[in-house]
Specification:
single chain; 142 residues; alpha+beta; VC0802-like; Alpha-Beta Plaits; globular
């Protein structure tokens, strides 16, 4: 039930993000989600694209160090407290969230959250027990 995320290690200097996005665009890769975390010297760009293996190949060919990481995509209510509710469910279940990022959906009233968690199976059980839907890649395009 996981989605493949491509993590790209970037030098923290001007133009790096633009170049990665250009490489993906030139190869027909449409971004579904993007997050970047940085330190003074480097950044980790995390992207969700429909073809993670293809993105990995073109980015490596362009000289980037990158890898695929399984993450969960979750549908949450697009309202104040929608994300808080999902995270509270995980907290009560004792599940640690390594990182998360969210974005709006094309579907009215819904948003999506990407989660990297300590235990994928337990996370899916906890979320489904609270009637929170986990998503496959195709659903992120809806």
């Amino acid at each position: 039930m996981s989605v493949k995320q491509v993590s790209v290690f970037l030098e923290n200097k001007s133009g790096q993000l633009a170049h990665v996005c250009a490489v993906l665009a030139e190869n027909g890769m449409n971004l579904r989600a993007l997050s970047i975390a940085d330190t003074k010297e480097y950044g980790i760009l995390r992207v969700i694209v429909p073809d993670a293996e293809g993105a990995l190949e073109v980015l490596r060919s362009a000289g980037y160090t990158c890898k695929i990481t399984p993450v969960l995509a979750v549908e949450i209510d697009d309202r104040p407290g929608g994300m808080a509710h999902a995270l509270q469910v995980l907290s009560v279940a004792g599940i640690s969230v390594d990182y998360a990022y969210a974005f709006i959906s094309h579907k009215a009233g819904c948003a999506h959250m990407i989660l990297r968690v300590s235990d994928m199976e337990e996370t899916v059980k906890a979320l489904e027990g609270a009637n929170i839907r986990t998503l496959e890649m195709d659903a992120l395009s809806e």
